[in-house]
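Replying to the earlier thread about multi-chain prediction with a worked example.

Input:
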Amino acid sequence: MKVAVLGAQTTKFGELWNNSPRALLKEAVSGALEESGLKISDMDAIFVGNMLSGILGGQEHLGALVSEELGVSIPSFKIEGACASGGLAMHQAVLSIISSYYEKVLVVGIEKMTDHKPEETTSALMGAGSDEERAAGATFPSLYALIARAHMEKYGTTEEQMAAVAVKNHYHASLNGKAQFTFPITIEQVLNSPCIAAPLKLLDCSPVSDGAAAVILSAESFALRNKKQNVKPVWITASQVATDSLGLAQRESLTSLKAVVSSSQKAYQQAGIKAKDIHVAEVHDCFSIAEIIAMEDLGFYHKGQAAKNIFMQKTRLGEKLVINTSGGLKASGHPVGATGVKQVVEITHQLQGKAGKKQVKGANIGLTHNVGGSGATAVIHILRNI
Amino acid sequence: MKVAVLGAQTTKFGELWNNSPRALLKEAVSGALEESGLKISDMDAIFVGNMLSGILGGQEHLGALVSEELGVSIPSFKIEGACASGGLAMHQAVLSIISSYYEKVLVVGIEKMTDHKPEETTSALMGAGSDEERAAGATFPSLYALIARAHMEKYGTTEEQMAAVAVKNHYHASLNGKAQFTFPITIEQVLNSPCIAAPLKLLDCSPVSDGAAAVILSAESFALRNKKQNVKPVWITASQVATDSLGLAQRESLTSLKAVVSSSQKAYQQAGIKAKDIHVAEVHDCFSIAEIIAMEDLGFYHKGQAAKNIFMQKTRLGEKLVINTSGGLKASGHPVGATGVKQVVEITHQLQGKAGKKQVKGANIGLTHNVGGSGATAVIHILRNI
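Result:
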């Protein structure tokens, strides 16, 4: 299977109090359409990734809302899977093209999180967790803190090593004009930042963000004949999803996300590659520990080996395998429904050689890793430019 | 294209205070699996239709929740499109099978609406409407009342004719042990019931309901070799979706739903049939006027002709074209995310000859018509047994 990415764009991510969700939507979509050389009227269907519009804004039915806002009346769907909503929308869009039902589709991820009181947003995000976790008053920082403690205990992972994830991602974000945080930070700053849920400090955590991201996908046959604007298609060669329990208490392990292991193994098989063939990846670093575990679960490092390699800057721009060139969720920002789509935008630009200062030289194969909740949903996409 | 329905079941619909959402889910799914002769471990993916779990219950991420609850860890997706969530979940499931990504899939629609204060539920349902409608304090009865007034003005439709829709659907529901209201009503009872939003009375309106519905779908090739339990597959020969504006004010017409016209015309074309070939249909009668307009938009009657024919009992059990044998949303109940799936359950049973007292004799071709909001989303499925 081969599905083409013809255009991809994000808005700036951040605390965008002056931008309505509709304005963010239009900005991302028009950017992606412009790259593709296509018009909205060329689209056959729309897939919207969003988590919180209902809980926080009382607005559901976003499929029809987005279609109307863009001035078309085509089939339009909202897909929700917590922070993996964007990745799941990508997956459904890919399937819809492979089914030959739709030829050219728009995928848009969007979230507006900063217009609400922080405690409302925190509570709404727990809609991704289990009943027990919500009843116990858990928050996602506290759940990932448990995961971090278990990983430290089992593999000797240190707070300095976790801090190195945030430092690297802030460095990458400093090269990304659309990132929420474009300032570099140091290990000391992370370690000295306020404790959120020990051992996680403020600078171990991804922020609350607004933003939208959009991609234009098409069938292979269309992409091959759509030469008018010198669009260099990037090809999605794998799209895989797996699930696990909503809550941590039901998991076999706290130091590995089973859904990531199984979906990534299927994705490598589908794409006919191995983990070592990946040049650049966007991984779901909602907390610094999450990137460390992702590097292991994705097969980039053996268990217990990722943290020290990240600390030695082996996944930073300039190295062989570069992780989160956008700045990741940590520094580029994490508007939850947009994140899975933004990851595809970043990898697309990397494989097209359009990533600017953060370009990974010679990047031909990339991967995106989008996680919902504390690992209940995992979505992997593999993209290549050849 | 041909996708098989191998099993289909609903829970009872109603005010089910003793049944948790998880219990409803399991009951519908185990019923559908039993009919199909398959086990949950045979499934490759799950598509969940739900609208209100986030707004009313603070619980999102239902894909993973349902997968976990059923004891599997397969790809699982929540699709939301207001009251068309179930129909859209069906559509995505059909596409996923045609894409050959998944061979056997479970579709489940679920909603738990009665555990909340009525004003909370009413407000949550307006999440399907436009900003302006919500800001103006509109409710769905008021929006459909505007539609009813326009239809009465343009075509001379009467309150008695609208009442006849409810009378017929209560009669059908009296033959359906799983319906919310199993008592027959009279035209006089409808006309004398309390006014909700003139000209709509209480008995013109579908109720607030709890319930779940599930279907097991498979690829044609699997269905043809799955002979072990004498399962008589029913075939989905068309699945089409269209959208329109969220709000009424932006519509070209108040007396026709454009999304229904376009999606049904595409569906007839895809199935290679005409409206007159349909023997039995489940249509989205959220209010009595909605069934009248559906009969016209689906091509069963010319504009302005449906109401008088319904009043003359031409769409009642025993006639050539029978509408809403389940009792429809009006009398079978309307747990919003479940409705689009329940419609497919009813048509499947009709085409399998398993509809009991409400069986339409010789029914070979059926249609489902699921609408989101006041017509912003429309989903049409056509099924046949030959």
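The mean pLDDT of chain B is 97.

Feel free to reuse this layout for your own posts.
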